[in-house]
């Protein structure tokens, strides 16, 4: 553009110079409708040069003003982005450290950057769940984009929206190459939704893809058998026996614990008696600490063994647990009074509190509870 302007200016200069050389001023007439402009060629060139100079000056002034305005706007934009990123960072750290008050403050302070809007809604939903506001949490979760909704299954479950969680998880989890994380979330959703049949078939078919540790399997089966026992009348032993051999071994400890806690001692009686006969009394005591049921055969065997070892504290504790299970709380309370002279064991707490409370010895039960909290 500048090059062409120079060409035009040069053209007029040449024309004006030619007339000056021949001692002629030149004459220019411009007519447009009723308007007419008359001038010498030299005057026209001068006016054009002046107009171009004024135009260039005005252009520079305009650019300078625009840079000032744009700079102010850019600085404001940078400050806004900095506040947004600071709010996002503060929220993440507050979430990691479980600081609910700091989290709420950070979320109210500023909006997150647009690219983190889904994360902001998810964090706000989590904060609402921490505060017990499940309705508010659902509102935030519904604001998530469709791809993001499939990534917050645990929040959907915590907000008691199992159907929504399963709807987003099922397509991914049912793929052959589903990741362990996707399968884990899907299984958790099925467990919370109490979809026992789908849960059982998924575990049977996809357990090798989960890559869980023994402790993870133990935790899962503990929750699974506990939920089955609480909400159905299904046979725990039949369910455990139907598992593949590898899973039966991994589920055994949880199966025994849940059977004892729910008072279903028949499926595990032989195993408990075997522990007693092999003098693995401490292992038996660990299992019986949450016993909620009676077993006369096992009690007789414990009493028989106590005749030979009357001061064995683990055996005394086993008898107290069995007495509590049969409703003989007076005997259990007497045993715990005897055990109080021994170094107190943490696993005795639950059964001792139960025995003292049932026999009206509330002060002793309260003291045990206080010691447990301290």
List keywords for this structure.
374 residues, 20 helices, 73% helix, elongated, mainly alpha, two-stranded antiparallel ribbon, single chain
Description:
This protein has helices spanning 2-21, 41-96, 100-109, 117-130, 134-142, 146-149, 153-158, 162-173, 180-193, 196-206, 214-231, 236-241, 245-261, 269-277, 281-288, 296-308, 313-326, 329-339, 349-358, 362-373, and strands at residues 28-32, 35-39. By secondary structure, it is mostly helical. α2 runs antiparallel to α3 and α17 packs antiparallel against α18. The protein is elongated, with a radius of gyration of 42 Å.
Topology order in helix (H) and strand (E) letters:
HEEHHHHHHHHHHHHHHHHHHH
Low-pLDDT residue intervals, each spanning 5 or more residues: none
- Beta fraction: under 5%
Q: Taking all residues together, what is the mean pLDDT?
A: 80
Spell out the blueprint of helices and strands:
Layout: H1 2-21, E1 28-32, E2 35-39, H2 41-96, H3 100-109, H4 117-130, H5 134-142, H6 146-149, H7 153-158, H8 162-173, H9 180-193, H10 196-206, H11 214-231, H12 236-241, H13 245-261, H14 269-277, H15 281-288, H16 296-308, H17 313-326, H18 329-339, H19 349-358, H20 362-373
Antiparallel strand pairs: 1-2
Helix pairs in contact: 1-2, 2-3, 3-4, 4-5, 8-9, 9-10, 11-13, 15-17, 16-17, 17-18, 18-19, 19-20
Summarize the structure.
The protein is mainly α and 374 residues long. The protein has 20 helices and two strands.
């Amino acid at each position: 553009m500048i090059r062409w302007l120079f060409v035009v200016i040069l053209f007029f200069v040449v024309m004006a110079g030619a007339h000056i050389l021949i001692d002629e001023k030149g004459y220019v007439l411009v007519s447009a409708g009723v308007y007419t402009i008359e001038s010498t060629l030299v005057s026209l060139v001068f006016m054009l040069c002046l107009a171009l100079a004024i135009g260039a000056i005005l252009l520079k002034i305009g650019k300078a003003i625009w840079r000032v305005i744009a700079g102010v706007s850019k600085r404001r934009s940078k400050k806004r982005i900095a506040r947004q990123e600071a709010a996002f960072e503060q929220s993440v750290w507050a979430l990691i450290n479980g600081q609910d008050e700091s989290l709420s403050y950070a979320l109210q302070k500023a909006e997150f950057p647009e690219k983190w809007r889904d994360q902001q809604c998810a964090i706000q939903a989590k904060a609402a769940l921490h505060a017990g506001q499940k309705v508010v949490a659902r509102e935030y979760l519904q604001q998530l984009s469709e791809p993001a909704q499939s990534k917050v299954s645990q929040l959907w479950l915590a907000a008691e929206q199992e159907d929504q969680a399963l709807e987003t998880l099922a397509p991914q989890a049912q793929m052959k190459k589903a990741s362990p994380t996707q399968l884990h979330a899907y299984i958790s959703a099925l467990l919370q939704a109490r979809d026992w049949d789908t849960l059982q078939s998924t575990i049977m078919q996809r357990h090798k893809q989960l890559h869980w540790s023994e402790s993870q399997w133990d935790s899962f089966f503990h929750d699974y058998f506990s939920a089955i026992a609480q909400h159905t009348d299904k046979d725990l032993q039949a369910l455990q026996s139907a598992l593949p051999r590898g899973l039966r071994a991994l589920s055994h400890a949880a199966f025994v614990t849940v059977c004892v806690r729910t008072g279903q001692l028949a499926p595990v009686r032989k195993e408990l008696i075997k522990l007693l006969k092999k003098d693995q009394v401490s292992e038996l005591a660990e299992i019986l600490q949450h016993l909620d049921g009676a077993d006369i055969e096992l009690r007789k065997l414990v009493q028989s063994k106590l005749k030979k070892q009357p001061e064995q504290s683990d055996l005394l504790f086993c008898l107290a647990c069995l007495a509590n299970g049969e409703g003989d709380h007076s005997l259990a309370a007497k045993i715990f009074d005897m055990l109080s002279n021994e170094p107190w064991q943490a696993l005795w707490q639950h059964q001792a509190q139960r025995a003292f409370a049932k026999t009206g010895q509330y002060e002793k039960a309260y003291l045990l509870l206080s010691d447990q909290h301290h």
